[in-house]
Amino acid sequence: MKKPPIIVFNVVLFTVLTLISVIGVPYWALTYGFNTFEIVTTVVLFFFTGMSITAGYHRLWSHKAYEANALVKFVLAVGGAMTLQNSILHWASDHRVHHRHVDVNDKDPYSAKRGFWFSHIGWMLREYQAERYTDYSNCRDLQKDKIVMWQHNYYVPIVLVSNIAITALLGYLNGSVLGMMLLAGICRIVLVHHVTFFINSLCHIWGKQPYTDCNTAKDNGILALFTFGEGYHNYHHIFEYDYRNGIKWWHYDPTKWVIKALSLIGWTKNLRKCPEDKIQQAKFAMQLQFAKEKLEHRYPNPEEVIAKLEAEYELLVAKCNEYYLSKKRLMRIQQRQLKRTVDSIDMHTKCEELKAAFQAQKMRFNSLASMPLQPV
Ligand SMILES: [Zn+2]
Ligand SMILES: [Zn+2]
After folding, report:
1. What distance in angstroms lies between residue 208's CA and the mean position of ligand 1's atoms?
2. Ligand 1 mean position to 179 CA, how many Å?
3. For residue 239, how far is its CA from the centre of ligand 1 (angstroms)?
4. pLDDT value at position 123?
5. Which portions of the chain are predicted below pLDDT 70?
6. If you measure from the C-alpha of residue 145 to the centroid of ligand 2, how many angstroms do you get, rounded to a whole number?
7. Which is deepest, 94, 289, 326, 337, by most CB within 10 Å?
């Protein structure tokens, strides 16, 4: 089959950025060296721009996993543009198609079933889906978002101004514009590119599938370290609207921590979470499947053991449902009780105030009524 035409701009861009990073940056390091300020700026911009993709492009705009105020959105829109991964609207549109048609080679824009190279970077080098390049019909909600549309309409100037102005200014203050642009500009862009591309490639290849095997997405704690927490990709593909990817408190998911921290000062809100019983039941279903596969391989006549296992599984699901249902009821009752307590405290305070006002008025009246009468 004939391959689609090459996207020359993308090929040249990736090649030039990569060559500068693997030749120019080491040459500069050996000839002039990089100082602490340049290294710290690079690390800060790496995390800021990388997490603008994971917290902004991905969890906020593609999945609507939480809401953010205009300032947070603006900062994430600029940080995301600094990574050169196209506009929010375009990125989110591709990503929604990825979730909807995951692993379907002719629909999923970066289908992992087409191999590591394709899902990592190859999909951007040829016009594989030219017909839907400007079709944003799956992002009508985002087309109503003023910040998304501002970033989409002025994408190129925002990319140039944010990348060049920030790094050049910091470089100027530090004494070397070129050194800063090489490390905190170009090398940082390349690093952020590949760690985010890993989510589409390695996170669909390497790891475990504790929640679903309906697609290739994997959970991998090691990859989470390099992808700002997005390594828990198996969980993400089944519960995509959850603002967390690593659901345990100790899972390395800095994106989740930033979103949560911002909610504490009111800058983000309505953080969505999948109910615990749904998560547990997805896990039980996978455990049952693994156990059945193991038994079928190891036992000559596994039917009896499998039947027993399935019966225990049914009981487990029933007990899980009962427990979480009663837990929800208990919480509702406690909330009602709490509200009643608050109401009764309010009522008590109000009653005390009215009592004081009544007594004061009684005194005023009594003092007036008991005044000796003056003859007219
Ligand atoms: Zn994926
Ligand atoms: Zn996603």
Report:
1. 14
2. 35
3. 12
4. 95
5. 373-376
6. 19
7. 94
Q: Tell me, what's the pLDDT at 6?
A: 94
pLDDT at residue number 373? 64
Q: What is the pLDDT of residue 79?
A: 97
- CA-CA distance, 340 to 227, in Å (whole number)? 46
Contact of 247 with 232, CB cutoff 8 Å: yes
Q: Do 66 and 59 contact (CB within 8 A), yes or no?
A: yes
- From residue 252, how far is each of 227, 248, 255 by CA, in Å? 10, 9, 9
pLDDT score recorded for residue 281: 94
Q: Global pTM? A: 0.87
Q: What angle do CA 272, 223, 99 make, to 5 degrees?
A: 50
* Cβ atoms < 10 Å from Cβ of 253: 25
Q: What is the number of the ligand closest to the CA of 215?
A: 1
Ramachandran category for residue 34: left, alpha or beta (phi over 0 → left; psi -120 to 50 → alpha)? beta
Task: Provide the 3-class DSSP secondary structure of residue 359.
Answer: helix
Residue 141 — φ and ψ, nearest 5°?
-60, -40
For tokens 């700026």, what's the residue?
A: 41
**Separation of CA 266 and ligand 1 centre (Å):** 30
Whole-number Å distance, alpha carbon 218 to ligand 1 midpoint, is 9
Give the Cα separation of 171 and 180 in Å (integer): 5
The Å distance, Cα 76 to ligand 1 centre, comes to 21
Choose among 132, 105, 131, 135: nearest CA to 118: 105
Residue 23 Cα to ligand 2 midpoint, Å, equals 34
Q: How many A from CA of 114 to the centre of ligand 1? A: 13
Of the candidates 20, 138, 151, 13, the one whose C-alpha atom is nearest the C-alpha of residue 78 is: 151
Residue (of 291, 124, 111, 138) closest to 217 by Cα position: 111
**How many angstroms does the Cα of residue 25 sit away from the middle of ligand 2?**
33
